[in-house]
Each structure stands twice: as C-alpha cells, then as structure tokens.
Design brief:
about 270 residues, alpha/beta, two-stranded antiparallel ribbon, about 35% helix, about 20% strand, globular
Length: about 270
C-alpha cells in the first residue's frame, strides 16, 4: 500500500504520517527497488526484437532549490516503446551532454537487439547527434567513406528551428537529422512522426510523482532520491500494472515475461551484490 501510494503522487512526509512508518524504512525499500530495476533492465535487454518504434522526450523539475531551468538537476529523459508503452529509460540529471550520452548508450543496447529501429523525438537534436556518435557505419563506395546510421536505424524529429517570418521557402516540418544506411528501408510517414505517447506519460508522471507537480514546493531534495522514485515508477509501470490504453502489462506485451509481477513478489527477488 505504501509503494502504491508513492506511485500515485503522495509525498514521503505524507506517507510517514498516514502509515506511521519511518522515512528510513521507505528509503531502504526505494534503494532495493532501484537495484532491482537495473537487473530487470538488463534482463529486458537480453531479448531479441524484430521492430521497435521509440519516442523520446524530456521533462523538468526542481531539485533542492529553485534555480534556472538550465542549471537544474531535475531534467528527466524518457524513452517509451510506442506499441507496448514499455518504458526503456527514465534518467534524471543536469541537461548536459553526459545525461544524453548515458541515455543514448542504453538506447543503443536496445538497437543491438532490434532488426528495425525507429526513433522519434520532439525536436531535441542532441538525441540524434549523440546517437550518431555511438551508432554509425562507414560506407565505402570507392571515394571518401561516408558516415551513416547503422543499417535498420531511422531517426526523425520535429523541426523546431522553423522561422515563419524569414523570406524564402518554408522549412520542412519534419527532418532527417543524419544520413541513413542505403540499405535501410524508408517507410516512415509524416503522420507517424510524433511523441504523443511520451508527452502523455510525462503528463501522468506529474500526477504520479509529487516532485514533478507544477506550482508547488514539493520538489526533490537531491538527484539520487529522485532517481529512486523514478525507478520505482519504472518497475510498476512495466511489470506490475496494466496500461490503461492497451489493457496489457507492457513487459508481457513485449514478451519479456509471461505474467505480471505483484509488488509483494518483488520483495522476494534476491539481488547478488
């Protein structure tokens, strides 16, 4: 009941008053689930997938104190599978190159297990730039080798650099940020390029986690505690609850496990340290 309340937007202080439990007990549970999340993610990355469509987006909250957005440690990158709503990543930190690198490295592990991979973002070019640094091939055609994404990888993003007041032809609404492998089949329609499911999840996260709620002072005290809360929500979303749209547990729909896992059973999973 305590863990479910934490995932429904109740703060730590409120939990201690309602359930008469100490903060240290709750923090020890969150620490266990944070370790368990790493194991379950590695297990998910061992599976083979035929095709994968992933949407990427980010949201922001305050950490410790109110600072300008660019200096906040509460920027959170979210990657979600469009078909099953499986969350591949919820990583928080300062919005710098290191945060994007950590996120893309996990995404690259997904790419290595997938034959046909598509990534759609909301216009943040650092997703494609960082992915291109890690996931590229050299095409030899008798001239200077050409750098492209690996075979089967496609990336599209919204062109947020559009300026309507400038003269000349109107820029494209959606762009292909980096060259793709010549053997990659381009089967993406403009209507498919969006991050609507990620944005919907971000809206629900502001309800599920008090630290992300707008116009309040219930922000996180430090990044580690915020990440532990995100790890708990990650496990509950992927392995415990049925998604309200698909009516299926994301991990079951993605065929990672056969049946969902109850919160009570998660406490019995042992983790080697």
């Amino acid at each position: 009941m305590i863990l479910k309340s934490l995932c429904e937007g109740t703060g730590i202080n409120a939990i201690t008053r309602i359930f008469k439990v100490s903060k240290n007990t709750i923090y020890s549970w969150l620490s266990k689930f944070s370790d368990l999340k790493e194991v379950m993610l590695l297990y998910s990355l061992c599976m083979q997938y035929i095709t994968m469509v992933v949407e990427g987006d980010e949201l922001y909250t305050k950490v410790n104190k109110n600072v300008p957005q660019e200096d906040s440690m509460g920027w959170t990158i979210v990657f979600i599978d469009r078909r099953t709503r499986f969350l591949w990543l919820m990583e928080c930190g300062k919005k710098d190159k290191q945060l994007f690198k950590n996120a893309i490295r996990i995404l690259y592990d997904v790419i290595k297990q997938t034959d046909d991979f598509k990534l759609f973002t909301d216009g943040e070019r650092r997703y494609s730039n960082t992915l291109f640094e890690i996931c590229f091939e050299l095409i030899y055609t008798g001239h200077r080798p050409k750098k492209t994404f690996e075979k089967g990888v496609q990336v599209r993003l919204k062109n947020k650099g559009e300026r309507k007041h400038k003269p000349g032809p109107k820029p494209k609404k959606y762009v292909q940020p980096k060259p793709e492998h010549p053997e990659t089949i381009n089967d993406i329609e403009n209507s498919d390029i969006h991050a609507n499911h990620t944005e919907a999840f971000n809206a629900s996260l502001r309800r599920k986690c008090a630290a992300y709620r707008r116009k309040t002072n219930t922000y996180a005290k430090n990044t580690d505690r915020l990440q532990q809360r995100l790890d708990l929500i990650w496990i509950k979303h992927n392995f415990v609850d049925k998604h309200f749209t698909t009516k299926k547990i994301p991990a079951v729909e993605l065929e990672i496990i056969e049946n969902g896992i109850a919160f009570e059973d998660l406490f019995y999973i042992r983790i080697a340290i």
